[in-house]
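dumping this here so i dont lose it
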């Protein structure tokens, strides 16, 4: 048994062969926030080349502003065991779902030396489990939302009709005050009507009215509106959209998704921020990337942002991202999000059209 002078942490010169084969990262973090990697899986996770090399500072492996850094540093500060904690971990632009356990290490006198950590990539199992839970929750929410939406829409239609009559009568009578009041009330009714429409989008699948277009056409149709909003907010807007992928999509709904993601990105930034919208090809998919330079999304919120009614905005409904996710899923695509340190990037992946429509058909009766 040998000891590293820097960390005072014991380990065997040659780890057991089974440790190399273990499908989980095994590492040690000392009280001085120094790491020792015990197997290939750990080296890969941290992009570190050597097993049992001299201790390396945590800040050299991970950016000090990243959520991953703060997670491991917090483990050291708390000096306690973690069991079956699922965390998100970004690596080369991809989000991994890791099952993390930690085990405090003490010397013979009881002095705390550091913690052993195991980190197992759950792969698609974690994603699948989260998707199933989210789908079940959406199904329940959808049934409730459908009932509420229909009950609200009926009186809304009546109120809207009377307000329109009131507005016309005021205009004919030259009563500008009553006309302004009626117009203001109509605008508020329309806002409620939009919320009802969002609830119905969650409650039932919308028939996809697809047509062939290019990704460039989709983006260019929104460019003026997004640039105007960015100019008002003092945000720099950049476009990398020279990729001409053919898509078979419901143009109106996909534009709605991109518009929502762009608005979210701008709301996350102060004046002087930068919004970047890009197109790129990945295998048989076209990726539409919406990136901002805002504060980013904390790791503990990453798994919640697509939950219905979850929002961090003071006046948000928490329906925007779940609706975007549903729309994209109805087109056979998916939405991915990455955030590390600062800034956030949403990636909308849509199948590239080869002339054959590939819109998945949702079984009847499911929401």
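and the seq i came up w/
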């Amino acid at each position: 048994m040998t000891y590293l002078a820097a960390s005072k942490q014991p380990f065997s010169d040659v780890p057991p062969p089974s440790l190399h084969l273990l499908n989980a990262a095994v590492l040690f973090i000392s009280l001085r926030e120094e790491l020792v990697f015990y197997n290939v899986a750990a080296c890969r996770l941290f992009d570190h080349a050597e097993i049992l090399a001299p201790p390396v500072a945590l800040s050299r492996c991970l950016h000090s502003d990243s959520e991953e850094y703060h997670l491991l540093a917090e483990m050291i500060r708390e000096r306690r065991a973690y069991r079956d904690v699922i965390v998100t971990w970004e690596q080369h632009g991809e989000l991994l779902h890791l099952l993390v356990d930690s085990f405090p290490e003490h010397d013979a006198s009881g002095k705390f030396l550091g913690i052993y950590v195991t980190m197992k990539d759950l792969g698609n199992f974690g994603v699948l489990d989260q998707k199933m839970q989210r789908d079940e929750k959406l199904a329940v929410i959808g049934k409730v939302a459908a009932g509420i939406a229909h009950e609200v829409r009926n009186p809304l239609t009546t109120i809207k009709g009377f307000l329109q009559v009131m507005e016309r009568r005021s205009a004919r009578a030259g009563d500008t005050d009553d006309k302004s009041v009626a117009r203001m009330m109509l605008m508020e009714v329309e806002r409620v009507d939009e919320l009802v429409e969002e609830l119905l989008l969650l409650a039932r699948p919308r028939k996809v009215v697809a047509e062939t277009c290019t990704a460039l056409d989709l983006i260019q149709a929104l460019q003026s509106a997004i640039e105007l909003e960015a100019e008002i907010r003092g945000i720099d807007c950049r476009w990398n959209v020279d990729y001409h992928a053919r898509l078979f999509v419901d143009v109106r709904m996909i534009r709605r998704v991109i518009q929502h993601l762009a608005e979210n990105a701008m709301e996350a930034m102060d004046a002087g921020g930068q919004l970047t919208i890009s197109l790129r090809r990945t295998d048989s998919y076209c990726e539409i990337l919406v990136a901002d330079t805002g504060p980013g999304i904390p790791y503990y919120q990453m798994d919640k942002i697509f939950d219905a009614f979850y929002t961090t905005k003071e006046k948000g409904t928490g329906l925007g991202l779940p609706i975007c996710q549903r729309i994209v899923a109805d087109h056979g695509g998916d939405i991915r999000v990455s955030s590390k340190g600062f800034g956030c990037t949403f990636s909308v992946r849509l199948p590239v059209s080869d002339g054959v429509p590939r819109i998945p058909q949702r079984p009847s009766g499911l929401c």
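The radius of gyration is 26 Å.
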